[in-house]
Amino acid sequence: MKVEDIMTPDPVCISDAATIHDAHLLMQNRGVRHLPVISEQNGTLVGVLTHKKMIATVMSLYNRYGAGALDRRERHQPLTELIDTEYPLLFTHTPLLDVVDYFIDNKFGCLPVSDADGKVLGIVTSSDFVSLCKTLLSKPT
């Protein structure tokens, strides 16, 4: 099996020029937990924002500045300060066996899928692997 077999195509993405507030709203409104971050300049992948990182940041801002200042702080903090940029590159043809160890070893909840030019094509999440397990376990032996 390959990445393209389980990935979510055309994921919701966000610009690297966005703020934490923009990302927070986008995650809430679109019901997503992971956002590939793309360059405002050329549309290529520059990183990933995870729900885990977003929640930790929002809670830190809340605890440090209080509820009244949270919105203002979110609006002024660049998203690029939160994104993960260290992860393996995934392509649609990457074998799933090459990817599964990364999820197990790093406890990272998602990996973006791109083409050779760095354009985002999809995203693979740990939930995609759980769904695959369910499918495989449901098959009669």
Number of strands: 6
Mind summarizing the main beta sheet? 3 strands, antiparallel
Global outline: globular
Structural class call reads: alpha+beta
Unreliable runs: none
- Note the run of SSEs as H and E: EEHEEHHHEEH
Q: What's the arrangement of strands in the largest beta sheet? A: 1-6-5
Helix content: 40-55%
| Rg calculated over all Cα atoms | 16 Å
Distance between the termini: 19 Å
Strand content: 15-25%
Q: Kindly report the average pLDDT value.
A: 90
DSSP helical segment count: 5
Verbal overview:
This protein is of the alpha+beta class. It is 43% helix and 18% strand. The chain has a 3-stranded antiparallel beta sheet. The protein has a 3-stranded mixed beta sheet with strand order 2-3-4. α1 (20-30) crosses α3 and α2 (51-65) crosses α3.
List keywords for this structure.
globular, alpha+beta, 18% strand
How would you summarize the topology of this molecule?
Elements: E1 8-9, E2 14-15, H1 20-30, E3 34-38, E4 45-50, H2 51-65, H3 67-76, H4 96-106, E5 110-114, E6 120-125, H5 126-138
Parallel strand pairs: 2-3
Antiparallel strand pairs: 1-6, 3-4, 5-6
